[in-house]
Structures are given as C-alpha cells and as structure tokens.
Amino acid sequence: MQNKMAGKNPGVEPRLNISQIGGEFALIERLTKKPVQREIIKGIGDDAAVIKAGGKYLVLTTDTLVEGDHFSHKYFTPEQIGKKAVEINVSDIGAMGAEPKYFLVSLVLPKDIDIKIIENIYKGMRKTGRKYKIEIIGGNMTHGRQLVIDICMIGEVKKKNLKLRSTARPDDDIFVSGDLGSSAAGLNLFLENKKGHVNVKKRYLEPEAKFYKVKPFLKYINSMIDISDGLASEVTRICEQSNTGAVIYPDLVPIDPATRTAAEICKKRALDYALYGGEDFELVYTVSREYTNKVQGFMVGKITRKKGVRLYKEGIEEPLTKHGYDHFLI
Amino acid sequence: MQNKMAGKNPGVEPRLNISQIGGEFALIERLTKKPVQREIIKGIGDDAAVIKAGGKYLVLTTDTLVEGDHFSHKYFTPEQIGKKAVEINVSDIGAMGAEPKYFLVSLVLPKDIDIKIIENIYKGMRKTGRKYKIEIIGGNMTHGRQLVIDICMIGEVKKKNLKLRSTARPDDDIFVSGDLGSSAAGLNLFLENKKGHVNVKKRYLEPEAKFYKVKPFLKYINSMIDISDGLASEVTRICEQSNTGAVIYPDLVPIDPATRTAAEICKKRALDYALYGGEDFELVYTVSREYTNKVQGFMVGKITRKKGVRLYKEGIEEPLTKHGYDHFLI
What we know:
Chain A is α+β, with helices and mostly antiparallel strands.
C-alpha cells in the first residue's frame, strides 16, 4: 500500500514516533512531487498508483513486512509469512477495483538464516500466487540484520472499474465488507500468552484479501480503501482525499463474537480492535444512498460535508483521532 | 536487478554465505516457477522482467540498498544514498535497452532516525529522478532495525530495442562501455582509511547508470547486462543464460590510472577490482563480428561455444570461478 507508516503490530517492537515526523502520510506526500507525466493517472495518495500503458490501466503497489515489526517467527511459520506478504499486496490492488497480475520480491536476509525458511517463504508466496493466478516475475536477495520482505505488485483495471480514495461524496453510506478487529484480537492473544482461540489467532496469522466480496457490485461504489490500519484510519484517509468528513456508528461495526471473547480475556474493548487494530484487509467503500440496496456488506457510517471523522452514538458525537493506531498500545 | 545476492560491499558487513545455499541466482530460479501468462515476455533471469501491456513492453526491476551492507553513513551523505538507490535501478532498466519511467519507494527506517536523513534521501531520489525525467509514483514507510531502501522501477522498451542476457552468440565480441574497478577501489580506500583520492572515492559514492553510452548503437548489440557484481560475474551470467562460454582478455580490460594507484596503495590487484569488485554500472554487451566496427566501447573478450568463462593471457587459459566476488574479500 501507499503512504503508510506500517505501525501495524504494536507491541512487537517499538516503533517510529509518527506524530514526531508529522504522520507518514503527510511526510511521503511532502517528499514527493506532483506527477507531471500524462500517463500517471494516480501517483502518491491511494492504495496503489495507476498508470496508462498502451490501452490499459496498470495499478502498482509496494508493501513491506519486517521481522519483529510485522511478524515474529514465534507466531508465524515461514509459509504464513510468504502468504501474508502476497495477500496484503493483493488487498491493495483489489482496493483499486483491479485484478492482480504479477509481482516482484525483494528479500533482506540475516546471514545466519536457514535456507529452509527462505524456501518456505517462497512456498507460501507461490501458493497464494496460484490462488490468485498471479506470478513472480522478478526477485532480489540481499542481506541485513533482520528479515525484510518487500513485494511490488502489478495489476490491471478497466477504467470504469477504477476505485479511488478521493471520490467519496457527502451523504454516501460507508460500508465494510466483513467483521473487523479479529486480526488485532489474534495478535493480542499471542502477546498475552493466551492459549487456545485458534480461529481468532488464525485471522491474524493468515489474513486474506477480500476483493471477491465487492467485485459483483463494483459499479455502485464511489470510493474504496482496504483496512490495513483500522477502520478509523481508513475512513480518515477517504475523507482527507475526498475533502469530506464522516460519522461512524460504533454499534453497527460488525465484530465476531470470538473477537469479543478475546477482547474480554485480554481486558480490551473489541471496538478498539475494529477501529484501531488494523490488518483486517476487509474493504471500506462508500455508496450513494440511491444504490445502497444494490450492494452487500455492513453499513457503518456516513460521509458528511462537515470535516473530521466522528463516532456517533445515542445523539452524541465524539471526534476520532487521525492516527488511531498511535493511541492503541496493546 | 534480478537474481542477485548483492554481496557488493564486502568488508562492510559479514554476508550470507552464497556458496552454502547454492548461489542466489540458482536459488531464486529454483524457488520461482516458469511463467505461464502469455503477457510475460521475460520473468526471472535478467536485469529486469518484461511484460506486454497493451501495445507496449514494460520492463520492471527491483533493487535494495541495506545500511551496513550497501552503504554506510560514515561514507555516504543521505542525498548520495538516495541518488544511488535510483541510479542502480535505472542501470538495470537501461541494461534491457529500455527507458525508465516511474518508480515506487519502500523505506525501512530505524526508530531513532533523524527526519533530516529521510528528507535528504528523498531529495537525492528526486534529483536523480529529474535527471532521467522519471517520477516517484508510490511509496511506503515502515520501521526496522536498519535503514533499507527498496525501489521498484518501471520502464518502457520497443520490442526491437529489447536486450536480454540470453541472446549472446558464439564468436560475439564482448565489450564494456567504460573503465572498471574504480568503485571497488573507492570502497577499498575508505575501508583502509586512506585520505585523498577524492575522484576514485566519488566513483564509489556516486555511481551513475551508463545506458546513454550504448543507446546510439543498440541495434548492433546481441546481449547486454550491467555490471553490479564485477565483470567476471556478469559475463558468467550472460554465458549461463545464452548457453555459451567466454574468454576474457585481462590485458584489454580498461582500468583508470587512478584506480591502479588506489590498488597499489591498498596492496590489491586493480584487475581484481575490475573482475570481482562490482558496482561499476558500466554495460557489458556482445556484438557479432561483422558489426564490431559499428559500436563503441572496449573489447574485452569473446563468446565461445566451449562452456565456462576463462581468462586468456599469453596463450594460457585459466578458468574463472562463477561468483567471483565470493573470493574477493577486501
């Protein structure tokens, strides 16, 4: 994905203080100039870049997994690491309304790494590749102090199917494609050394892209993003790019009972997992009122002319912070 | 570039033992399946991948710089790091006969990094971008224990200009586009704490892609590769992919007098810098005998039917090891 300081797994390793550097989103935008080439349909600022090539639109994204930050060998098998690296990029491509096609893999490997680990990471990548009928077309290996997997993925999209973050309209209903917070709950269970809860933990270990869920009704969607960093962050990004605000109805956010149970055990609020946890890889999409009966999913909020993202419950509005996950320290 | 365990700067940090894992080239090829999609013109195995998109050929490559392995803040300014990250990818694109167009940047940042360093890395990337009229279209930031810069670059090439490693022919003459070994000499001077020799050191700190040198006579070139890992490795790659062998005439390898002086001071052989040092980013290209008068550069060897790469001097042939840089420990 683009523009993301991926503080996804708080607690695994201390992270860069984003607020100190003004937010990674703002930082990358500030450090990158507006594109001038006419073939660049969308540069920095969405889940993926879009370029015109021949008669087609190509969609390109890059995402990185860092050992200790995005995964730990304590919880993940190498195959799961490989699968996750591909899924999160497929999710970004799907969030543009596009189909993934190819990817390039850069690995940074600690010098004492067992070759079996590399083989099984690749095995995981190939398996997920087969699932989506996409292929590895390039690769690079180098060494460093910790394992880093960087994938650059290329997809294709028809112009009419292209979905951006910047095209939400006031009064759009905000939908999510599935239940939220389970991935954060899974991580929390691991960090608290809680036994059992295999299904919740699996949602953390084996995330899957969800494009298939929205594909049938793509034409009714005004704007879309995938959930990497929690519903709060993603709705904020849509609003910033679309020059709108939003309200989220916390009681309507779908949360699996197993996620609620995990929250109780870890003494957390399940809603915080959903809002600030991240890595659900469900899609958030906005739809004009007149078409809400044409789409599926869970209505969780509304785009507003009034700026800022607010929680709305029992007549009371409460502002949401921009980078929810900064305040979500497990 | 593709298929490379970038053991470029021996001595800066201990590296993965490539021979132990069977060579990174063989490793990536083994771990990646042959492409099945018809749009994939060239997958793993060259400087960049080639895909058909609309009526065009797109060329894609990824390359990584790791702190302590490919650069040290002791020698490089942040701006030089940013420039180098872009140049090495431009070099891979050029080695395919292609023009660079866009790139995506993934940064892994230590949590205590000064924002000024990030800004100046980006400044360097933007400067080199302007030089080639190419643009940053995507970015990602995450954190980790050491600074990692991964760039995925996209270029375009007309079918007739596409140059591969796999198309050298027996009796082709082997050319290089410029003098070799200066980058390795520069690094060696740094590691030996030698003062002065600013120009040699600059060749290490500020490498530049050399595509412009061969562009005027591209149509006479049968196969091409850029020099990331030393002449020995690159000729070996051409031969492996083309199912040929080669002889290299060591006396014809162009070496700058300043590089020779540096070698003397460091008590090394300048030829070893050229053969095994790497990061020259000059191009190696092979040309049919009948067209050698149409091209420019330095003739340094010959493609042969007989397999293996050999040094040829005064009637004696001496085999070259496959991964020269494994045996070149500064």
